[in-house]
Amino acid sequence: MGFLSPVYVFLFSFGVRVYSQYETYQWDEDYDQDPSEEYQPEFPFHQNIEYGAPFRQYTLGCARECSCPSNFPASMYCVNRKLKTIPNIPAHIQQLYLQFNEIEAVTANPFINATHLKEINLSHNKIKSQKIDYGVFAKFPNLLQLHLEHNNLEEFPSPLPKSLERLFLGYNNISVLQTDAMDGLVNLTMLDLCYNHLHDSVLKEKILAKMEKLMQLNLCHNKLESMPPGLPSSLMYLSLENNSISSIPENYFKKLPKLHALRISHNKLQDIPYNIFNLSNLVELNVGHNKLKQSFYIPRNLEHLYLENNEIENINVTVMCPSIDPLHNHHLTYLRVDQNKLKEPINSYIFFCFPYIHSIYYGEQRSTNGQTIHLKTQVFRRFQDDDSDEHDESDGAQDSHEHGAEEHFDPHYYDSQEW
């Protein structure tokens, strides 16, 4: 008996150690969250053997309709699951992805325990404004990003949490913005409202000025006829393509000193103030597809200028560049002027004013009777390959490549949309 006692103690200790090993094993770290794939554990477990811890086919703390990858334990993916309602969200979830479903309503019940959400993606669903519970999003004090694009919203969703930084509302039917809709959005840096039904009257109260940290505003593909008033001075990127804007008030951009990129193509601009774009930080300017008839002053730091599809017959370089300062050169590198009414290439003086310019795309021009004109130089490149002594004036492949590259240019930064 004296001899067996130490043996029993040894076996008992070994059993406890084995039990403890699997009791503290982190199951959720090795489970593949996709139930369609076979789980390959680190150890050769068998389901009919008890190791002191249960074997589970699903991930703990995740809705059965969704998946929660072990390498992203705070994320829950419910994408393209044909869901019609939002499943219950566990308390630990921070990123929630519910896009490409058939969800029609956003109610408060599924979010009762979800107090740590930082990102919600409800894009590509069938959500209507009247089916969103009042204040359902405002209850998330840590929410940074909210996707509601590609739904059936008629109104701007409000109230929203003060923590919100990025809000995507494109591709909806929004035509109403309550006067207090932007109240409290003091940390919002990006707002996308492209592809909606916004009119000038909606923005008359200067409600956009309340977002003092806003850096990017997308209002493309709406029904605006004038420039939006009261934009915050923090704005750096402004997208106004595909509206019906016909003029820009003088000194309009004086209150937007940080503006970096302006896209206002596909509008009805005709006569604009000569010095309207004199902004020290402006790098990209797209005023293509308008009705402009003359050139304007080019700010020193502008690099990319798009003037295609206008009514310009002559580009006066001295208007664009009144003087040359060798110590402060203009930075223009790319100029697109196809589909205008030019009869000859731009005067070579342009290369003295803009010493960094490397490409001018002339493409096809339109004559007064509607016929197409091909200039002698359709594509000018400042820097040629070493094995080329002169410009190739009729290289169809080169023209096609340059034009094709511009055809793929997407003026609408959308999740979008990045600039």
TrEMBL record:
Signal peptide: 1-20
Record field: compositional bias (Basic and acidic residues): 398-419
Keywords: Cell adhesion, Disulfide bond, Extracellular matrix, Glycoprotein, Leucine-rich repeat, Proteoglycan, Repeat, Secreted, Signal, Sulfation
Disordered: region residues: 384-419
A Pfam family matched in the record: LRR_8
SUPFAM superfamilies given in the database record: L domain-like
Subcellular localization: Secreted, Extracellular space, Extracellular matrix
GO CC terms of this entry: extracellular matrix; extracellular space
GO biological process: one example: cell adhesion
Top-level lineage group: Eukaryota
Record flagged with keyword Cell cycle: no
Acidic residues bias locations: 386-396
Subunit structure and binding partners: Binds the alpha(V)beta(3)-integrin.
Family in the record: Belongs to the small leucine-rich proteoglycan (SLRP) family. SLRP class II subfamily.
Biological function: May be implicated in biomineralization processes. Has a function in binding of osteoblasts via the alpha(V)beta(3)-integrin.
Name of this protein: Osteomodulin
Annotated organism of origin: Oryctolagus cuniculus (Rabbit)
This protein's encoding gene: OMD
